[in-house]
């Protein structure tokens, strides 16, 4: 075996891949400071196991005789985001510092000690000191430490040869005579037994398989040790549940398609944690798939540059294609690699995150899902906001699941992570107050589906509370009424609603108007009618406003559901439901509290208690050209109380500048007096809804509203009578 290794080493020297005299020079360098070793050695006496993360999870222990192999092994591991302790790396042994303390610390704390077994290893003092240190750590503060012997210069049988070992023992005894305080021959013999006890990897005497052996060593180490570089997920609450739910779901699915790949999909509204789930699973599955994991965050209508970027990322992480090769390839050349089985080495996990419903996004995702030549055993996970969108990829419903929900405890802990830096509260009173705050983020999915916590809104609320009220739950609770809209003075839009806006901004103007009509401008007299009458009247109203047959409006409602803005739609009855968060978004949007910009750009106005002063002004061009919906509302007073003050006149509003308004809704203006004069002004008006205007003397100009198709005028007394009748 020694002769075989000598041939390999000579061959490497010929190719200028080795350094020649590493063994002797390194030993000489090490020995110059051996006298300081005991002073620098940290205590290795048995004690409680260490819980701190080591700087280096892997320790490459060698004699120097196999420098070429170890250097290349180190580089391969670094390419796999594992950065071992290697004595020629400055990150391991910084220049100008005494190296024994760094070696001892790394040896004691590592998770895996890779021992390159050779004759030189057991006849060199310093490698043996490292080996003894591994064994000491394993029997003391680091009981989970593993030792991986790599039989390079010695075969198993040569290593176990008693005559050979007795030669090592004699050499150790000679050293001990000179240095009894640091060399215990009995302890070194026990360390040798530990090497034999661990199942190692032997290089068989075939130089043609040398590269294959090195690759298998890298794969084995990657199986045993998680990567040093990964997405930070310590802040994720519900992580174990995500992994548990995924494991349960994937176990029920069978491989399918040309390449026998398992496909699993998850759906849920924006902010529910789909991206977090993808990243957590990439971390969790890195060992199972030997680092062949990749997360791709999709985008609506992806550009050519973005699609090429995604291809590069997938090929770099999941195939054998190097970054240098990819750098010069175009999209077509990358696809050619993606579609060839020879490009792939082993099963992979690919997460296609946040699939959109436009044609470009669907085709881009199909390229990975249906054309990539994944090895058998691979998994492709897809996430989207709706089940319908997943269907566009041809994913069967049996493969689709809702995103796992946060438990109450996980929701509380997520809030505390952002509001109080993860501080723990044990007082029941404090916990109750915290839960009341967190309940602000407990949204109804729809009338039929119950409620759930929204992680993104919990994060935003926690960050806001922490900056506003410190870490006192009582102050948080007192501040809660003031944070309904979170930080309205922030120059940036609230992240929760920013996520929803991605969906909303992709709607056509007509679809946006329909969404706002059913969210804010529809009649609110639902409690006074039975369900069927309410939905019938709503269908009629939408038909008048949009000048379409119900069948056409039903198709548009279904499109809103497909885009994630509605939860349930029954086209036959006209019934639908909406997630609380989307309804909240609509309310804040029509109040002008979300997106910046001037009044000139607004299409929808819904004012509470007072109307925007801009309605009294003349816009440039003489008309608020984009304004199509106006609502002015005051809260309805309690049944046993009267409300004084409020809006008493709308005479200041220049209705003539609102000539493009299609829907006008005035509600609860109990003290509005005089006559509402619309004569010859709002020529496009199709719906006029007056409710609770008890003191209004009349409406002028109705006969001039040639397009008016819906008119309702209900007094407060009528509302109260309807309430008791219902």
UniProtKB/TrEMBL annotation:
Residues 54-221 form the TIR domain. Residues 44-53 have a biased composition (Polar residues). One of its GO terms (molecular function) is ADP binding. Residues 34-55 are annotated as: Disordered. PROSITE patterns: TIR. Gene3D superfamilies: P-loop containing nucleotide triphosphate hydrolases (3.40.50.300), Toll/interleukin-1 receptor homology (TIR) domain (3.40.50.10140). GO terms for biological process: defense response; signal transduction. Pfam families: NB-ARC, TIR. This is TIR domain-containing protein.
């Amino acid at each position: 075996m020694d002769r075989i290794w000598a041939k390999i080493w000579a061959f490497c020297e010929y190719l200028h891949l080795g350094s020649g005299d590493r063994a002797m020079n390194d030993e000489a360098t090490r020995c110059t400071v051996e006298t300081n070793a005991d002073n620098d050695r940290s205590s290795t006496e048995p004690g409680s196991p260490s819980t701190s993360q080591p700087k280096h999870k892997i320790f490459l222990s060698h004699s120097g005789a196999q420098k070429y192999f170890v250097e290349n092994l180190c580089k391969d591991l670094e390419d796999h985001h594992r950065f071992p302790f290697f004595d020629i790396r400055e990150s391991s042994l910084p220049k100008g510092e005494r190296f024994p303390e760094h070696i001892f610390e790394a040896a004691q704390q590592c998770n895996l000690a890779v021992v390159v077994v050779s004759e030189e290893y057991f006849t060199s003092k310093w490698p043996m000191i490292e080996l003894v240190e591994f064994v000491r750590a394993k029997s003391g503060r680091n009981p989970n430490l593993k030792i991986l012997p790599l039989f390079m210069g010695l075969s198993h049988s040569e290593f176990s040869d008693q005559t050979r070992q007795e030669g090592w023992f004699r050499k150790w005894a000679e050293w001990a005579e000179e240095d009894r305080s640091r060399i215990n021959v009995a302890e070194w013999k026990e360390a040798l037994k530990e090497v034999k006890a661990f199942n190692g990897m032997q290089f068989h005497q075939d130089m043609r398989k040398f590269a294959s052996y090195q690759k298998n060593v890298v794969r084995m180490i990657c199986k045993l040790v998680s990567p040093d570089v990964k997405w930070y997920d310590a802040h994720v609450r519900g992580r174990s549940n995500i992994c548990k739910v995924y494991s349960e779901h994937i176990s029920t699915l069978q491989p399918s398609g040309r390449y026998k790949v398992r496909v699993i999909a998850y759906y849920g509204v924006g902010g529910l944690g789909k991206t977090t789930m993808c990243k957590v699973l990439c971390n969790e599955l890195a060992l199972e798939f030997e680092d062949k994991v990749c997360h791709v965050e999709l985008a609506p209508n992806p550009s050519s540059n973005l699609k090429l970027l995604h291809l590069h990322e997938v090929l770099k992480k999941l195939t054998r294609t190097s970054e240098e090769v990819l750098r010069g390839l175009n999209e077509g050349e990358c696809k050619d690699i993606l579609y060839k089985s020879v490009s792939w080495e082993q099963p992979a996990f690919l997460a296609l995150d946040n699939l959109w419903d436009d044609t470009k996004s669907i085709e881009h995702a199909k390229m990975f899902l249906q054309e990539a030549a994944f090895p058998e055993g691979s998994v492709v996970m897809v996430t989207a906001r709706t089940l319908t969108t997943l269907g566009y990829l041809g994913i069967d419903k049996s493969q689709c699941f809702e995103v796992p929900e946060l438990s109450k405890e996980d929701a509380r802990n997520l809030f505390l992570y952002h509001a109080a830096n993860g501080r723990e509260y044990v007082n029941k009173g404090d916990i109750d107050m915290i839960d009341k705050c967190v309940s602000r983020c407990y949204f109804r999915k729809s009338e039929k589906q119950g409620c759930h916590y929204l992680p993104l809104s919990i994060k935003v609320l926690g960050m806001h509370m922490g900056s506003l009220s410190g870490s006192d739950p009582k102050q948080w609770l007192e501040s809660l009424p003031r944070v309904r809209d979170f930080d309205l003075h922030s120059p940036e839009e609230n992240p929760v609603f920013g996520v929803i806006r991605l969906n909303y901004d992709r709607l056509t103007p007509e679809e946006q108007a329909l969404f706002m009509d059913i969210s804010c401008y529809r009649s609110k007299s639902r409690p006074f009618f039975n369900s069927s009458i309410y939905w019938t009247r709503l269908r009629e109203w939408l038909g008048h406003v949009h000048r379409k047959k119900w069948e056409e409006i039903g198709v548009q409602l279904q499109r809103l559901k497909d885009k994630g803005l509605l939860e349930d739609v029954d086209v036959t009855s006209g019934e639908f439901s909406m997630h609380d968060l989307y309804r909240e978004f609509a309310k804040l949007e029509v109040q002008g509290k979300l997106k910046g910009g001037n009044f000139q750009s607004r299409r929808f106005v819904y004012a509470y208690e007072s109307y925007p002063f801009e309605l009294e002004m003349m816009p440039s061009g003489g008309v608020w050209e984009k304004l199509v919906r106006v609502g002015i509302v005051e809260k309805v007073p309690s049944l046993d109380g009267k409300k004084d003050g409020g809006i008493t006149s709308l005479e200041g509003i220049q209705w003539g500048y609102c000539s493009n308004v299609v829907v006008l809704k005035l509600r609860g203006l109990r003290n509005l007096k005089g006559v509402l004069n619309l004569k010859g002004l709002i020529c496009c008006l199709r719906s006029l809804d007056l409710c609770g205007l008890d003191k209004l003397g009349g409406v002028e100009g109705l006969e001039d509203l040639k397009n008016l198709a819906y008119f309702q005028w209900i007094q407060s007394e009528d509302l109260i009578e309807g309430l008791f009748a219902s």
